[in-house]
């Protein structure tokens, strides 16, 4: 296992490739991988759509607690939920031991292949994805330490993150 001083934290829109890219980066570097959404579901024992039935604010409270838990990890590639940037405290926690990388995938590419049924904020209206993009894009740019473009070639994004990891 490679020892690096910082976790690698991936932020970006739903469907931008955070989990896919994160798993590949973790494998190449011999690091642990943690998907915060999966961690949250396992900890709560119910699905994200079920949690959202109690409201987005309720979900964000649970997500923030999970971010605080996971941000204490070491030698880990962390894939966050797309809305993690909505709370500054999440970013502060993740940056304590991590470097934040924004996976910037063109919105048209996300729209063309994202599974909206499994995503509570998108299932009723795909145009909501554009609204989320407008709302979050500036936050992703503001909070990231590095930005990696994902044009659908996951291997390119993985290689760019591996280059970033060399300087950690």
How are the elements arranged and paired?
Elements: E1 7-11, H1 18-29, E2 32-35, H2 36-44, H3 48-52, H4 56-70, E3 76-79, H5 88-96, E4 98-104, H6 107-113, H7 127-143, E5 146-149, H8 154-166
Parallel strand pairs: 1-3, 1-4, 2-3, 4-5
Can you give a write-up of this model?
- With 168 residues, the protein is α/β, with parallel strands linked by helices.
- Helix content is 52%, strand content 14%.
- Helix 2 (36-44) packs across helix 4.
- The longest helix has 17 residues, at 127-143.
- The model has no long low-confidence stretch (mean pLDDT 91).
| CATH topology grouping | Rossmann fold
Strand portion? 5-15%
Number of strands: 5
User: What is the radius of gyration computed over CA atoms, rounded to a whole number of angstroms?
Assistant: 15 Å
Shape descriptor reads: globular
Unreliable stretches (pLDDT < 50, length at least 5) are none
Total separate domains: 1
Could you write a compact summary of the structure shown?
With 168 residues, the protein is α/β, with parallel strands linked by helices. The chain has eight helices and five strands; from the N terminus they run βαβαααβαβααβα.
